[in-house]
Amino acid sequence: MWFRRSRLPPDLRDALRAAERAARPPLHRRVAARLRAVGRMPLLAWIVLAGLLGFAGWKAGLVGDGASVAGPSTPRPVARITVRASAVDGDTLAAGADRLRINGIDAPEMAQSCERAGAAYPCGRLARDAMASILGRGMVDCEILGADQYGRRIARCRNEAGQDIAAELVRQGWAIAFRRFSLDYVGQEDEARRARRGIWDGRFEEPDAYRARIRSGAAH
């Protein structure tokens, strides 16, 4: 007969609970029974469980303190070209009518000045001159990665000596790693900073911040 336990007298409820506890197997037997059930799981179930646990750990690493979050990755090349190019500025090449924006770096703008030993100097023009020197005779082998909002082709290029021209410019201190788009040249930037090469031998405004400031001033 069905009844509500809460309606029973207190002493009867206590006796009923005691009887139920006495009828249950001891804790160690219940644990052993569950372990035996786990041991009978088929291999496929174990594989699925391991996969779920692995994914949970990976996801926790991503969203934990942020240290495991990967940076922006360089896109896959969509084409490859070999052309004669010249330096427009520290991070852009001209190849005939085409403009190639070098991927992963940002160099001072042509009109930009930096400071060294308390005096201003034309770091934008010096960055362009450094790029021209790295280009040598100007023959470059480039992987085209896409295009930017200005219609320039985004490229990763090597000179005739096989040097990654972006890596060399950053290593010399005339460009910085453009972390918003790529982490490929962070090591070269760290090296240039430690050695105080190029713009690191003094004070400078990051090119992206410089452009934003100029645009903001023009808007007013």
From TrEMBL:
Kindly state which keywords UniProt assigns to this record, in alphabetical order: Membrane, Transmembrane, Transmembrane helix
Query: What InterPro entries does the record tag this protein with?
Result: SNase_OB-fold_sf, Staphylococal_nuclease_OB-fold
Limits of the TNase-like domain: 88-202
Q: Which Pfam families does UniProt cross-reference here?
A: SNase
* PROSITE patterns reported for this sequence: TNASE_3
Chain segments annotated as transmembrane: 37-58
The signal peptide, as residue positions, is none
Official protein name in the record? Thermonuclease family protein
Lineage per the UniProt record: Bacteria, Pseudomonadati, Pseudomonadota, Alphaproteobacteria, Acetobacterales
